[in-house]
Amino acid sequence: INQFGRDLTADVRSGRVRGIYGRDAEIQTVVEVLCRTEKRNPLLIGAAGSGKTAIVEGFACKVASGDVPELLKGVRVLAIETSSLVSGTSLVGSFEERMRKIIAEASQPDVILFIDEAHTVMGAGGSQGGMADMLKPTLARGEIAVIAATTDDEYRRHIQQDKALSRRFQPIPVKEMGPEQALEVLKLRRDALKDKRGVEVSDDILSGLVNFADEYLRSRTFPDKALDLLEQVVAHAVAGGETAVTTENASEVTSRLAGHPLPPAEALTRLRKEFAALGVADTASAEKVIGRLNTTLNALDVDACRPNLVAALVGDAAMHTVEIARALSRALFDSPDRILDLDLNQMRDEESVNSLIGPPPGYIGFGGALPIHELAVTPCTVVVVEGADVCHAVVGEVLANGLAQGFIEDSAGGRYYLSDAVVLVPVSADTPEARKVPLGSVFGRGDAPERVATDAAALAEAVLGRALCRQMDMVLSDLVAVTDASKDVYLRDSVLPKVTQRFEKRGLKITWDDGVVDLLLKETSKLSDLIEVEHYTEDLVSGLVLAKVALPPLGEVRLVRLGVSDGAVVAEERE
């Protein structure tokens, strides 16, 4: 057993394992279960990172210090891994022989086994005569004592299904720590890190790390997520040759880990520029968006679990959902690709909700990948919900609950958070519900802004339903509208710079006269979509330039000037 196990009590005495904080009740329950005559096998069940292994280490600390009942004094707590037991047992009967020896040694009164990831015993050693089957009789008779640990999900999937095995254990729930307890755990770890790495961390920074983890790492568990942040900021200081963690270092590390590349003030400044480049027609709507994000990005919203912004897009805004999503992604997350598409268009019957949250346990596809799983990897993203206006009511209810709670729960019980996302819900006017609404000025021009807002809100509620519409922070109709003024800004600040940037990568540096924009405005006067304006412009410029100048060899640069001659855009090469 010494060959395959690690003596935790010896590790405590040698200083490799330190004391823990905040788990006295769980440790006491472990002690009581171990004092029973039969089935003295505690099973710690809790979320990953909640501190199950730390509880066992805390128990080992009590044993090492003698702070246990007389029955448990002098015992050894031996941690064994299922993988090491199976390793090298390819010959028939070799695993069974190894297990018999371990059980015989573990039957000594001074030995307690600890099996982490306890669900792995179910398949270890093969389906017949495997590890689980060999442990059951000795566990039931109380001949050996085993402390086991596993997650809620794995317990339900594996151990609970085997009634003969599950009844041999006494389940002990391990709840997630609160922020206050996690802070005390960080203080203990800080002292250990100072001894090992020589880096100081102040109490204020520890509090900031806990608050950050609580606010932005919702898919993970205390104290593990806070400990990871502490380890990372200390490692950052060590890599930089510093002896103390500064607030600037901590902010840089935490923002990078959480996927927040830009501070809120800078992100909102960039968003104003992005909206200007899109040719925003309704500045009041733009400021409303920015005002809401100013509150949520700075974590000042009362209900912090909800998304940073939920906006229904109607009319011209719905037509330009892609452009709005890209503008938000570039400004807030410094990338045009931080966009998650949730397409509900095909979810028109009750069973199709499985495409959103997964099928129930036992059905084909259970546990498979789903679009919402991407939120676990990139929680800071722009979520575009297509088809919310045509999906089944059950699907709409799941979406509405997800927006209200700040997370969508899949069929396996996993939570995928929308708290750090921006959610856009385009609404189509081409539905039976929308046709019943007196739209008035939703798609009109020149009407009073309040009339447009009223009609847009009426359309959104008629199509999405009251429950889902209640979760919208705002309904935007003319945020992006194709007018001569908006097209002028869009051409000058967005389309032409992008076109010339693409040519510059191929060795052609393009400049243009102001008259080019005026002529392009005239040529695109009948186009009502910004994408059409963009495609028309890039095709026109590409055709004119390539007709005059060939793409140069790699490393060579040529100059091209766009101008106007005889009422048409022309291109000429410059020296």
Give an account of the 3D structure.
The protein is an alpha/beta fold. It folds into four domains: about 5-175, P-loop containing nucleotide triphosphate hydrolases (Rossmann fold, 3-Layer(aba) Sandwich), CATH 3.40.50; about 180-260, Helicase, Ruva Protein, domain 3 (Orthogonal Bundle), CATH 1.10.8.60; about 265-475, Rossmann fold (3-Layer(aba) Sandwich); about 485-575, Helicase, Ruva Protein, domain 3 (Orthogonal Bundle), CATH 1.10.8.60. Helix content is about 50%, strand content about 15%. The protein contains 25 helices and 16 strands. The strands form four sheets. Strands 1-3-4-5-2-6 form a six-stranded mixed beta sheet. β4, α6 (about 130-140) and β5 form a beta-alpha-beta unit.
Number of domains: 4
Q: Tell me the CATH topology of the largest domain.
A: Rossmann fold
**Distance linking N and C termini:** 82 Å
Assembly type of the shown chains? single chain
- The average pLDDT score comes to 84
- Which bin fits the share of residues in helices? 40-55%
Q: CATH homologous superfamily of the largest domain, by name?
A: P-loop containing nucleotide triphosphate hydrolases
Number of helical regions: 25
Tell me the Rg in angstroms: 31 Å
The rough form would be described as: elongated
Most strands sheet: 6 strands, mixed
Give the strand line-up of the largest sheet. 1-3-4-5-2-6
CATH architecture term of the largest domain:
3-Layer(aba) Sandwich
CATH class of the largest domain: Alpha Beta
Using DSSP, what is the number of strands? Answer: 16
**Backbone structural class:** alpha/beta
> pLDDT below 50 for ≥5 consecutive residues: which ranges?
125-129, 437-453
Percent in strands? 5-15%
